[in-house]
Amino acid sequence: MNQQILLNGQWQPSQGQKSFRAMNPATRQPLDEDYPVSPWSEVDAALTAAAAAFETVRDWPGERFAAFLDAFAAGIEANAAAIVAMANLETGLPVEPRLKNVELPRTVSQLRQAAAAAREGSWALATIDVKPNIRSVFGSIGPVAVFGPNNFPCAFNSIAGGDFAAAVAAGNPVLAKGHSSHPATTRLFAEAAQAAAEATGMPPGFVQLIYRTSHEDGARLVSDARIAATGYTGSRSAGLVLKEAADKAGKPIYLELSSINPVYILPGALDERLEGIADEFSASSLMGAGQFCTNPGLVLLLAGRTTDAFIDAVGARFAKARPGTLLSAAVEQSLRAGIDTLRKAGASVVSSSEAEDAGSRCCHPNTLLLADGQAFLNHPHELQAEAFGNAALFVVATDIDQLLAITRCLEGNLTGCLYTHTTGKDDALYDRIEPELRQRVGRLLNDKMPTGVAVSPAMNHGGPYPATGHSGFTAVGIPASLRRFAMLQCYDGVRSARLPPLLQDQNTTGAWRLIDGAWTQASIA
Amino acid sequence: MNQQILLNGQWQPSQGQKSFRAMNPATRQPLDEDYPVSPWSEVDAALTAAAAAFETVRDWPGERFAAFLDAFAAGIEANAAAIVAMANLETGLPVEPRLKNVELPRTVSQLRQAAAAAREGSWALATIDVKPNIRSVFGSIGPVAVFGPNNFPCAFNSIAGGDFAAAVAAGNPVLAKGHSSHPATTRLFAEAAQAAAEATGMPPGFVQLIYRTSHEDGARLVSDARIAATGYTGSRSAGLVLKEAADKAGKPIYLELSSINPVYILPGALDERLEGIADEFSASSLMGAGQFCTNPGLVLLLAGRTTDAFIDAVGARFAKARPGTLLSAAVEQSLRAGIDTLRKAGASVVSSSEAEDAGSRCCHPNTLLLADGQAFLNHPHELQAEAFGNAALFVVATDIDQLLAITRCLEGNLTGCLYTHTTGKDDALYDRIEPELRQRVGRLLNDKMPTGVAVSPAMNHGGPYPATGHSGFTAVGIPASLRRFAMLQCYDGVRSARLPPLLQDQNTTGAWRLIDGAWTQASIA
Questions:
Q1: Which residue ranges form the domains of chain A, and what is each CATH number?
Q2: Does B354 score more than 80 pLDDT?
Q3: What confidence score (pLDDT) does residue A359 get?
Q4: Which of B127, B454, B512 sits opposite A458 (nearest CB)?
């Protein structure tokens, strides 16, 4: 008996003939609930309901969306233990500290930050030119489709995560497409979302959930006339199929695809603090079995004795650490394939951990690979293959010129890190590398691994293609992430009473507004 | 003998075997200069030069780009008479007031506004979270291709107009592709640009001009790895070909395509001020022979006696006004084709002016077409065909429900206007129409025609697809238009001395920055 889908305000049976089950990756056992693959007729019905919901809410003030988001956050907290337990069962991610102490609180915090942003309104960059009476603001865009990834069952969940929070805070209904590896976790979130929607008077169809569609119907969904925009986090191959469909229909789609997050560790830094950096790198690389968008998958080094020592030091740590459980058999398989691609292109395995219980759970040895700079330049595409999981490739360049040539081959990435000597010994190298790297990454770090992604206004969890679909937007960080799901709405000579609240002379929420070129929270006199 | 192209800092002969000539539309005579169609080898060389120029300028402060833009503006002013005379010769647009008193001053003003924005930096939305030391800012993206349109030989010229100014102010080299209908005007601008670039120490390749390429090479250009983004203003068909190529390569492309700019004139407004609105509409519709992106091409009315009188009043004005000269034989031809499409879909011509000198200049009778609401609903696609020029379609709906149904069929447009009774008689109708129209247009106007596009911070010259490629961006209005040609660059834990000027603790330019959630011009203590 299939689990029900959330359609037009009701949990209801799917008409789908196909179904799927998730798996417990810690035991390799299938879980016992069946989830439906929705046929197009259901997606179609959901789209119609979302469009109707949007007609109802499109003129609502931010306060209404904030109330829903706050109620939803409270509902999640009230059911946190069950959600965390289910997420652990479906993903193998540890209950503590990961799910209970980090990811679930982050999820709730994001929803509350989004609520605060919706309530206050500064996110919308209200801009008023008083004398000509031209006023503009980012306003809601319409129903948003959200495709969640496998690796954050809570914080990026399609019906509770960052894209969901941003889309709702900007005033849009969300049609969530859950990830097939954690449907029950997604269902628990959707139950809390639906309860919050009812409690706060949101129309049916404002939040909806389907678990799975055919690839063809996914492409049809993102390009449908009733969808205004899409947020997608996941694999590059699936994402690019959706992008093609959305692009063709002129629909914005915000993709967060693969990223190998290059880390440069310069000689002075190694001279100074080799062991510390080896600790930091190994922790960042193997944390969560390496299943982070910002996992440092590529380390760039200059040839030399300290570099050799560093490789040994990391190799020892990789060999010693117990391989983490991977999210699914699919991740295990794709990690193996990614490592194969790297090896075929000339990388060799220099350290590999034991994984004695590989048969009983989804896992893979911690794998450290090594290639020289010339090999990278010979096969830059293959040696940038993402090996999503607990693996990393070290590339050792003969000199700075080769390192720069490698840098110029890098695809767009979410992050890039530079570790340098604290008092300046690496500064000349830094000054040559940084400008090349800067253009290729969304977030540049110094002396810091990329795996922490603070939900903070200045955060950029984005980057040049193919890390994402557009380098001007971020998926994390409020208020900026809301603007993905908004359109610029200008009012020219529109009568005062007809303006939306954020553009009226009286500033009722204290939102920051750009009035005649100056930012202010004041009303217009 | 072909005119030279501007490549890598030098005016040089094209290797192209093909050439073209522009025409004087006021006489239908070809002009006597030959301009080259550049082969791919030249585009390729220009791309390499642009990439090299970007390596030089990417760390420069905004002041450097401002100095160039200001020098360029002064250079244009110094040669204004020649530019205006040439633009008149190539486009048939009147010297006064259009070119000399409106468009050229606007062009110079845009360049100076862009310079001021580059110098000061608020456009970049610098955002600083002090305690976690996460800082982000919009930074330059790389070489930008600009394709200019036919209808603004100055203010949207590929090497002097709004896209050019925005791309440069954001710190990017520009590779301009001139419009084939006014190459000599473009050459004069490029000469001034190159002189300014030399005078202000910009590297060769920072500003470059080619006049024409094959369609295939145009698509190759916008998707080339060395191009970071493209700005295009022009026809929908050519624009969508470029969009497809750019999308596939993951390159941002900002398109300003066709728009028919619906105008609703409600019964109370007609009761109150029929003659005045007929004057306003006719002036806006026929100004510049209707060759504006924001020309009001579609008027939506409710059936009734005043509506009939209004149609007669506008028809009389259309019949009486001398048809303006069209930009080219191609525009003349496409206007005729657009009107044919409308007629075939059920519109009838209710008023047409004399155009007795049609043989000797490019022109077309002022044409007022009429269709009923049901015809529109039967052929919504065809009856939204753009008839770019001095033509307009009036659609008369039987009642508000039909008017709303028509509104729901509207494609994305740059603008939408609502004329209503001044003291409230139309308010109930307004409240039903506005939410539907709002989602379909970038700029909503009250009691005002759409043809004036002020260069003002709150302006939105953008709108939902297919009016443009992305409803979150505007092509006019500074500072917002700069952000199209920028990427979000985050610095996480980056050492203070390594930060770009806009993100350092000391605020040297007085830029507005979002520090810990509050906008301020202050430095960090």
A1: 43-257+473-482 (3.40.605.10), 262-446 (3.40.309.10)
A2: no
A3: 83
A4: B127
